[in-house]
């Protein structure tokens, strides 16, 4: 039997590989589908998959509608404010801008800039959540920023609009993450994510309709 720590690390590596490949796949799909149509498909599939996972996991939940860690599996009115904030500004707009950045700046550049999310979250948490920056955090932030600077400084084809979109996505996602952290701490993470992505899917459907009306973009499918 694998130890829990080993399983956790393997899971993190698996997520890291999936997340990195997402940028490459997105660059290919964007050649055939409009940006917000892609986002709508992504969030719809994610919502369906998470709904199945939540349903399966609910068998282990307690009778008082809490999970194994005592977190609520039912989001109340106060919690929905944060879920909608995350769904609209974090997923629908933030990730939408990120995908546009990927379209113009390229998958490698977009994924590189997005790797700064932990840095911006840590920095924003200081004035908003009054968290303290430890020495190890400061060293990690400096190394992350320096690493991105080294790669960006190597030259190559730099698409400024795409880079600015990617940076805007990082800043928006980080801000939403910090603003919703405390308000959603008492709820089950899977339920939060499922519901926020459901909100985002509705938003992306509206955005896709607007995108089609303005640009007359179409979906191209190769036979």
Would you write up a description of this structure?
There is one protein chain. With 223 residues, the chain is mainly α. 74% of the residues lie in helices and 0% in strands. It has helices at residues 4-29, 35-57, 77-105, 107-114, 117-129, 135-152, 160-181, 189-215.
- Strand and helix order: HHHHHHHH
What's the rounded overall pLDDT mean? 86
Distance linking N and C termini: 46 Å
Structural class: mainly alpha
- Shape descriptor reads globular
The largest sheet, given as strand count, sense and whether it forms a barrel, is:
none
Amount of helix: over 70%
Number of strands: 0
Topology:
Layout: H1 4-29, H2 35-57, H3 77-105, H4 107-114, H5 117-129, H6 135-152, H7 160-181, H8 189-215
Summarize the structure.
With 223 residues, this protein is mainly alpha-helical. Helices cover 74% and strands 0% of the residues. It is globular, with a radius of gyration of 19 Å.
Keywords:
74% helix, 8 helices, 223 residues, mainly alpha, globular
């Amino acid at each position: 039997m694998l130890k829990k720590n080993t399983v956790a690390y393997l899971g993190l590596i698996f997520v890291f590989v999936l997340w990195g490949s997402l940028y490459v796949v997105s660059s290919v799909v964007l050649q055939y589908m409009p940006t917000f149509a892609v986002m709508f498909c992504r969030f719809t599939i994610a919502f369906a998959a998470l709904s199945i996972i939540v349903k399966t996991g609910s068998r282990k939940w307690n009778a008082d509608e809490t999970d194994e860690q005592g977190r609520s599996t039912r989001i109340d009115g106060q919690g929905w404010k944060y879920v909608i904030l995350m769904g609209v500004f974090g997923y629908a707009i933030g990730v939408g801008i990120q995908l546009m950045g990927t379209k113009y700046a390229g998958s490698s550049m977009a994924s590189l800039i997005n790797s700064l999310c932990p840095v911006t979250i840590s920095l924003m948490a200081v004035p908003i959540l009054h968290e303290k920056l430890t020495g190890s955090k400061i060293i990690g932030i400096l190394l992350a920023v320096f690493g991105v600077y080294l790669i960006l400084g190597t030259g190559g084809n730099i698409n400024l609009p795409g880079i600015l979109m990617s940076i805007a996505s990082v800043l928006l996602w980080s801000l939403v993450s910090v603003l919703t952290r405390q308000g959603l701490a008492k709820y089950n993470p899977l339920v939060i994510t499922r519901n926020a992505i459901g909100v985002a899917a509705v938003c992306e459907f509206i955005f896709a309709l607007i995108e089609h009306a303005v640009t007359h973009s179409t979906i191209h499918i190769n036979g």
